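Example 3.2
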Amino acid sequence: MIQYNLKITKRRALMVILFAISIMVLDTTIVKYIAFSNKEYPTPLYVSIFVVLVILFVIAVIVLLGFVKSKNSQSGLKRGLSLRSTYLIIAVTQISLIIIMAIIIEPTITLKSYKSLSLLAVVFISHISAVFFLIMLVLTLVDSILAKGDRILSLYTISFSLTAIAIMTSLVYATYTLSHQPSNIRPLSIHNSFIGLPRSELAIYFGPTLDIISILSFVSVWIASAVLMSTYKRRIGKIRYWTITSIPLIYFLFPFEKNVVDIFQSLSVSSPFLYGVLNVIIFSATKQIGALFFSLVFLAASTLVTKREMQKYLLITGIGMAILYGSIEIDTLLYATYPPFGVVTASFIPMGAYLVFTGIIRSARLVAQDSELRREFYNTAKSQLTLLKTVGVAQMEKELIKKYKSMDKRARSIEEDSRFEKDNVKEALHGLVDELDKEKAREMLHDVLTELYAKSRTDRKPGV
């Protein structure tokens, strides 16, 4: 596999985010707009748009893989994985999705048909791989919580857990719905595909369930993001801050009001065409706008550190947050239109999950291994760095415990070797290994870390 590197900057990261979001918005909106507007266009035009979206997706994947690839092949991720292995997994996943889309494009260009099985393959590959990365990330965060509890860390752990559940629910929902589609999808007007979506009693229950889980996931990430961005309350004022940060949440939740109040019921009855078009135009990017807000936390954090490598992985995490939460949208895919709009958006899900996973993990490793970076984190009161500081310090503690265990094991093997005397072993290890057990070592580490945190707070007080 060809390996390459692309330099990532804040400007390039923002451009990639807007580029990916634009692709997803177009991919998920076109079907709804045509269906509500009752305007049909020639099938070759739809096919051309789909092909362009696939090409843009391939470009985005190439750029993102270039951003995340590192010459430093770090290893040693927990549970037997290495960073190189995870890179290989996402590369194979994205290449597989691109191949499937190419298989779909060939028959659609000839205006014959494509297999609905291809859609199921996209759903399975994208969703399962995304859940894999999210589970690995959640397990890592749980380890950090057990080592050192933290409110922000707990919020993000809950958020990523709910996101994984939402993706799994989407997988079951999409699998069940697509299994009721014809095996061969032939040219059909988008309007007919929209109104002809297979329905069943089980599928009807999946929709509300998925909505509830999606809302919980979105709200939990919004809370965590709002807390991390709370530093800006001092600059712009509390009222203005909460007004600005509440816009993405209100924008996301507003379309669900029809399930509670339905304030536009009279408009939907008197003018369904106008209601449908306005609804699509105004609320077609609710998830993408919220995802953009989530990414701002890490984009802003990248400006607070001076170490280039740390900036890189903060930017990668920001891109991942935007792509992950902007791509969990399967409604368009379920209609199995000709061509299959929604496939490109679903194919972004594993890339988003991987970028969030690798960005946070590698950032934490840098904090754990770089004393100057930890000092830089301790000397800043910016809340955006709280998450990575906590995970990184917990990672440092685990690595120190691991080194202690390794040294303890070596000491025991030396003691068992008849060629050495016990006194010489103690002298070589400076008397520490034989005098301390694991619990005492952990207590010492906690004391040191607590002192560091206390010192950082004391140093910041005069500048507050």
